[in-house]
Design a protein that fits this description.
single chain; 214 residues; alpha/beta; Glutaredoxin; 2 domains; six-stranded mixed sheet; 35% helix
Length: 214
């Protein structure tokens, strides 16, 4: 008889601890989910991926309007010298573009958002393309140059040259995790920043972002 109150208290204590453990596990899961689920192009407050405030010294334009989700690197970062094919089917590389500011758009023929934004990239090339700036639309796609050319022809892109990586591996070297991904590269071949997802690249905000690097 004297053992029953003690046993009851033990059961209540065990139930309380189990409840607290479950809450703790749930909280831990939520924390991990929020961290992993945050879009990469929005940055984590306080982290090195957060878009820094623009300043006259850095020359970074404001990330507003159509460029709200563009993320600047704290400092320009080197990129791997990826290899791909040009419109003639000849091998070329990122290094061959040194001396130009490059807007490298990584896309695929099966990517619906890529089709959505490509006309804007064509307009951007038409307006700002020069010996100092080029839009490079790189199809990371096993259909190769033939597939890239057909795609650009279908959407009536007149100013974009076809580029393709038929191995579909160079996107991994660029740490591309979704398509389209657009990387702004300075004349020294370093990444200034990137935007994940489609964007209005013919918008005034996009043009300001490009012109600030020229």
């Amino acid at each position: 008889m004297s053992d029953q109150p003690t046993t009851g208290m033990q059961k209540r204590s065990m139930a309380r601890y189990s409840w607290l453990a479950a809450l703790s596990a749930l909280a831990a899961f939520a924390a991990v989910y929020v961290t992993l689920g945050r879009p990469d192009n929005q940055g984590v407050p306080g982290s090195t991926t957060e878009t820094p405030a623009p300043s006259p010294k850095s020359g970074n334009p404001l990330t507003t309007g159509a460029m709200t989700t563009f993320v600047f690197k704290p400092q320009p970062e080197s990129l791997p010298d990826i290899q791909f094919l040009n419109g003639n089917g000849a091998e070329t590389s990122l290094a061959s573009l040194r001396g130009k500011v490059v807007l490298l758009n990584v896309w695929a023929t099966w990517c619906a958002p890529c089709r959505e934004e490509m006309p804007a990239l064509d307009k951007l090339q038409a307006e700002l393309g020069s010996d100092k700036f080029q839009v490079v639309a790189l199809a990371v796609d096993k259909s190769g140059i033939a597939g890239a050319k057909k795609f650009l022809g279908d959407i009536k892109a007149e100013k974009l040259e076809a580029f393709a990586d038929p191995t579909a591996k160079e996107g991994t070297r660029l740490k591309v995790i979704g398509m389209p991904t657009t990387i702004l590269i300075d004349a020294q071949g370093r990444e200034i920043g990137r935007l994940i997802g489609p964007a209005h690249w013919d918008s005034p905000e996009a043009k300001k972002l490009i012109e600030a690097q020229l």
